[in-house]
Amino acid sequence: MQAQRLIATAQALMAGDRGLLAMDESTGTCNKRFAELGIALTEEARRAYRDMIVTTPHLGDAISGAILYDETIRQKTLRGLPFARALEDAGIIPGIKVDAGAKALAAHPGELVTEGLDGLRERLADYATMGARFAKWRAVITIGGATPSRGCIEANAHALARYAGLCQEAGLVPIVEPEVLMDGDHPLERCAAVTQAVLLAVFNQLDTQQVMLEGMLLKPNMVLPGAACTEQSTVDDVADATVQCFSRAVPAAVPGIAFLSGGQAAGLASARLNAMNVRFKSRLPWALSFSFARAIQQPALAAWRGVAANVPAAQQALFHRADCNRAARRGEYDAQADAPRQA
To answer: Measured between alpha carbons, how far is 151 from 148 in angstroms, rounded to an integer?
Structure first.
């Protein structure tokens, strides 16, 4: 294990008040978003879209790392550079999604477990030769009347830890992503309790698998009421509940927490991250950052719509959202000033 290299990469991903851009949507997910805007559902269209993202001027000022999908890391930009190389040239560390998706968990109706451990050692070695320096694995936890079960939490925690150990063996920083979904009508307090239980199980398994915490990053959900909950919490209440939960469950050795957006509106995700940093940044052992997908990409995708002439406007929209989240890391995001851009 290349301990110092792993630590240096993890720290670089958290440096400069920057964050991660998740551009690792599967072909099916990407095509679904394209279809909503009338964009061609082709490999070439996906390549052109990701080229627009990667070639955005000054993107490296706000983004430290980008998570790629298998299709993308094997492709070249429109100018003929491998995407991983183009990211490095822009000052952005390339990463790769390596899980095989969430599948039904046997004997646990309605619950999922993420698969992909078979052959992972070999795949990680291949991705490293393609330029990846970190990886990502997502586990999905659903809150319901009788869920999540202990079996579901433990199965996903074990898989995350096994994946993380294999990553560090290969010299890649593991991004550990246990996502408690915001689907449902549960209150803020239920999400906090479930998120804490999931995090405690994950870090117990990481310890069991001898994962070096200084050489990994956590990509979790914020603590939120369910999307269908009749009582939606204030930005400050979300900040308080989230930081309290993570203070109880995340060891100080972890360099950073890069929150996923999980379907939140772009401005709201920025405002919640901002509130956490305004209220707690100076007192926390780990950096609070972002690893957003739709909350950065969606305005740019809507501006682009598959038309080459729209690339400059789309890139401007993309950089704006990335820069808003950099400001949120500093506790300097102005939600009111940003509101017209969200209309």
So the answer is: 8
What pLDDT, on a 0 to 100 scale, did the predictor assign at position 336?
87
Closest CA to 322 of 26, 12, 16, 9: 16
Distance between CA 343 and CA 336 in Å, rounded?
Answer: 11
The CATH number of the domain holding residue 47 is 3.20.20.70
Taking CA atoms, 135 is separated from 61, 138, 140, in Å, by: 21, 10, 17
How far apart, in whole angstroms, are the C-alpha atoms of residue 134 and residue 95?
A: 5
CA 71 to chain centre: 18
Number of domains in the chain: 1
Q: What rounded mean pLDDT belongs to the chain?
A: 97
pTM exceeds 0.85 for this model: yes
* Owning domain of residue 273: 3-342
Task: Report how far residue 236's alpha carbon sits from residue 239's, in angstroms, rounded to the nearest whole number.
Answer: 5
pLDDT digits (tens, 9 = 90+) for 271-329: 999 999 999 999 999 999 999 999 999 999 999 999 999 999 999 999 999 999 999 99
What are the residue numbers of the active site? 177, 219
